Amino acid sequence: MSTATSSAPGTVTTWKLDPAHSHAEFKVKHMMISNVKGSFSGLSGVLNLDESDYTHSTVEASIPVGTLKTGDDQRDGHLKSADFFDAEKFPTITFKSANIDSTGGADYQVTGDLTLHGVTKSVTFSVEDVSEPSKDPWGNQRIGLSASTKLNRKDFGLTWNSALEGGGFLVGEEVAISLEVQFIKS
After folding, report:
1. For a 10 Å CB count at each end of the chain, is N or C smaller?
2. pTM for the full model?
3. Rounded to an integer, what is the distance from CA 82 to the centroid of its chain?
4. Residue 137 in contact with residue 109, Cβ under 8 Å?
5. Mean pLDDT throughout 55-77?
């Protein structure tokens, strides 16, 4: 990781993503009038945390596409099909950080490679409210954070759509992604 500072990395510790206390959500315009939301569970990942300078840290995460839920089984099946995510052919969404920049306080910009539907693109997440490490009731050290980004689904080959009789399209192109994540120190 390179940043504007040239200081050597400090103590680096390894933190595992806690899937029981982490989730990923998305929302996209439906029929140009409202948003449809969905979520994924079963997230996994590793944070290699430079405890003296978080900008020297790295993070990798993956999301199993098959866990997608929108509250409608028929829509979930369509989203997992070859028309959209093609979960059978592309079973995971992955992210690997390349750069972390501080934006002040406990907030960061994390840029890295997002691989979705077999396409890899550079994406920047706004990471807010990175907590100080704290001890849970079982003696584990934890860190929590919130992250978000927006992307154009067509950039990742998710191009299926249907024209509406009155103009426009059934599914919007811009997708908002939000993450709530906890990591446990290994």
Report:
1. C
2. 0.86
3. 21
4. no
5. 93
